[in-house]
Structure to design on (123 residues):
């Protein structure tokens, strides 16, 4: 019913930049909060940043000043601009959306995840 598709991951040198995108599609009524999570090998998945439909943002301390989250509500798309990348930013990055879908004449809340995109920072 709903798909979240991430793109933009890849290999970059320390200090470099990448821009991740997440496109949501399906029977979406409204998306409330969208967020980026990441999971490094051997570690738990952690919240990187989130943005509300009103544009309020929040970042984990380790990315403040380097990453910028944004979204285009009409396109159901979210972005993560990552600058000054560090070795410790290496992880699989996941898109998450807290939304309502249209279902049989009503709306149903749900929490959805993308499949993840690999970001590798290496010299």
């Amino acid at each position: 019913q709903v798909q979240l598709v991430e793109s933009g991951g890849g290999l970059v040198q320390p200090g470099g930049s990448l821009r991740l995108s997440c496109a949501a599609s399906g029977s979406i009524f409204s998306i409330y909060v969208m967020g980026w999570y990441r999971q490094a090998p051997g570690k738990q998945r952690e919240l990187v940043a989130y943005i509300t439909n009103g544009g309020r943002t929040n970042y984990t301390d380790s990315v403040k000043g380097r990453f910028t989250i944004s979204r285009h509500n009409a396109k159901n798309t979210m972005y993560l601009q990552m600058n000054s990348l560090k070795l410790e930013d290496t992880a699989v990055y996941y898109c998450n959306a807290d939304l309502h879908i249209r279902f049989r004449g009503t709306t149903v809340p749900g929490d959805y995840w993308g499949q993840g995109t690999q970001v590798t920072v290496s010299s």
In short: The chain is about 0% helix and 65% strand. The two ends are 40 Å apart (CA to CA). The chain has a mean pLDDT of 96.
